[in-house]
Specification:
By secondary structure, this protein is α/β, with parallel strands linked by helices. The protein has two domains: about 5-75, Arc Repressor Mutant, subunit A (Orthogonal Bundle); about 105-260, Glucose-6-phosphate isomerase like protein, domain 1 (Rossmann fold). Helix content is about 60%, strand content about 10%. A five-stranded parallel sheet has the order 2-1-3-4-5, sandwiched between helices. Helix 2 (about 15-30) crosses helix 4 and helix 7 packs across helix 11 (about 235-250). The termini are far apart.
Length: about 280
């Protein structure tokens, strides 16, 4: 267990009621609950921000930012430990399957019903949807685009070159939504495009990890997923599964039957004739 998580459990019995409420929130959703704002944490616990600050002080941190840095650092060290274990021990496919299953369940649980509703509503109502990702998560962005384009018009993959991205930015505005998948190690190219899009009024749905992309403060909707995996294999399965949940929820807010039928008919007309 994370040493900070252990410490929170150890001090719980000694705390006044308000600080206990903060600890319950942290332990119920660790480390995610620790990575938002101090006010957001206090609101979730039903207490005031000064109460949350007192808990941080009691734990020996200089401030909430210092506490968050420690949470991220210990989470990263656990990640490195899993990698070292993978390197020094022979791979165990059965164990890997169990860890993948557990990680997938955690990822799906992170997308609560209110959060799913918020993402789906924005994707259904946006004037246009643009998606992008990093070196691996771009595959999840591509999957979102391919599926969502069958459900509604105006869905695009953000192009690769700076010149093409600049042309895309020319036409972005407040009715558009950018969906960014950004996981460690966070993509500078994704950050540059997203910040430029936000400066033109576009809204951001950000899918990121427990350590939280630097773009988190730019997001109107933030989806944080665990990044648990067996060894060094990045769990793209989690991102695809969550994307599928989003697609199903978005489809329920649209009427895609006619569009899908037209898509199928057009596909048939473009197929080569049978020999």
């Amino acid at each position: 267990m994370d040493p900070l998580e252990t410490r929170l459990g150890e001090v719980y019995a000694e705390l006044p009621p308000g600080e206990r409420a903060i600890v319950r929130v942290l332990l119920d959703d660790y480390p995610f609950a620790a990575l938002g704002s101090l006010r957001a944490l206090a609101d979730r616990a039903g207490v005031s921000p000064p109460t949350a600050s007192r808990l941080v002080d009691r734990l020996g941190f200089a401030g909430f930012a210092d506490f968050q840095d420690a949470v991220r650092a210990t989470a990263r060290e656990q990640d490195r430990s899993r990698l070292r274990e993978f390197v020094t021990q022979p791979p165990d496919p059965h164990r890997a399957a169990e860890e993948l299953r557990s990680g997938l369940q955690s990822a799906l649980a992170a997308v609560t019903e209110p959060l799913l509703t918020e993402v789906a509503t924005r994707l259904a109502e946006a004037g246009g949807v643009w998606a992008l990702g990093g070196p691996l998560s771009e595959l999840a962005a591509e999957y979102l685009v391919r599926q969502l384009a069958g459900l509604r018009p105006g869905v695009h993959r953000v192009p690769e070159s700076p010149a093409a991205r600049a042309r895309t930015l020319l036409d972005l505005g407040p009715s558009d939504v950018v969906v960014a998948y950004d996981f460690r190690r966070y993509s500078p190219g994704t950050a540059r495009f997203v910040r430029a899009a936000r400066s033109r009024g576009a809204r951001l749905v950000l899918v990121t990890d427990a350590w939280q992309s630097p773009l988190a403060e730019e997001a109107e909707v933030l989806v944080r997923l665990p990044r648990e995996a067996a060894g060094p294999i990045a769990p793209l399965t989690h991102e695809i599964a969550v994307t599928e949940l989003v697609l199903v929820a978005t489809a329920s807010r649209l009427s895609p039957a006619t569009r899908l039928a037209d898509l199928d008919a057009l596909t048939q007309t473009l197929l080569p004739p049978n020999p």
